[in-house]
Specification:
Blueprint: H1 2-16, H2 22-41, H3 43-49, H4 57-82, H5 95-125, H6 148-161, H7 169-177, H8 188-196, H9 213-218
Length: 221
């Protein structure tokens, strides 16, 4: 259901942005992808400052990611608009490429935005305790994970495009975000499943994701 919502939102965005050029829509999509990536990859900073077992950390982390993504997007949009002079640049594409390409790019723009909000609301914020009204979103024994795979692909794309040092870092961070211990009203089945999951190795990304020296020294051995 949520996946189809993202697709429908992408179709609506393709219709709304159909009058813009392919070049303008491409810059918009790129700015959104970079904003989502930066918001997600900066989330370990907040996790280092907060206790992962604290109540409501999912709300705090979701708000942090959204705030960072919005700030980065506004910054990139202003740079693109007033420094790159997007509205005054005229790039000639083939008429067929322009007509189809701008709608495809606009579709993915809307799809990425919808996936971000689904991830923040349904994966990080929504309580795991099943209620009857949640039937249209998920089943009783299956948490919402439909947005995790698209989010991972989006972050991996920007991670590779920007030649980051740790190619597996987005997967690590998103796994950490979807397995926060503080999720309210977590069911016994989900707790059992989390306990059986192999812990992630923080040493894979020593200078990116691990806590500072002072915090590490205070952790019990």
């Amino acid at each position: 259901m949520l996946f189809w919502f993202a697709i429908l939102f992408g179709i609506l965005t393709a219709w709304l942005l159909g009058r813009r050029s392919l070049y303008s829509n491409w810059i918009l999509l790129f700015n959104i992808l970079v904003s989502i990536y930066v918001g997600v990859m900066l989330s370990p900073i907040l996790l280092d400052m907060l206790d992962e077992t604290a109540e409501g950390i999912g709300y705090n982390c979701a708000a942090f990611i959204l705030l960072i993504a919005v700030v980065i997007f506004v910054t990139l949009h202003l740079i693109a608009r007033y420094s790159l002079v997007v509205d005054e640049v005229d790039i000639d594409f083939n008429e067929l490429v322009e007509m189809i390409g701008k709608r495809i790019v606009a579709f993915f723009t809307g799809f990425c935005v919808a996936v971000l909000f689904i991830f923040l609301i349904a994966v990080m914020i929504m309580p795991y305790k099943f209620s009857p009204w949640m039937k249209f979103i998920r089943t009783e024994n299956t948490p919402v994970t439909v947005a995790v795979k698209p989010m991972t692909k989006m972050c991996n794309l920007i991670n590779k495009f920007t030649l980051q040092r740790y190619p597996e870092a987005p997967q690590y961070v998103l796994t950490k975000l979807t397995n926060l211990r503080s999720r309210p009203q977590q069911t016994e089945d989900s707790q059992t499943e989390d306990s059986q999951t192999e812990p992630l190795d923080d040493q894979q990304f020593p200078d990116l994701l691990t806590p500072g020296p002072s915090q590490a020294d205070n952790d019990p051995k």
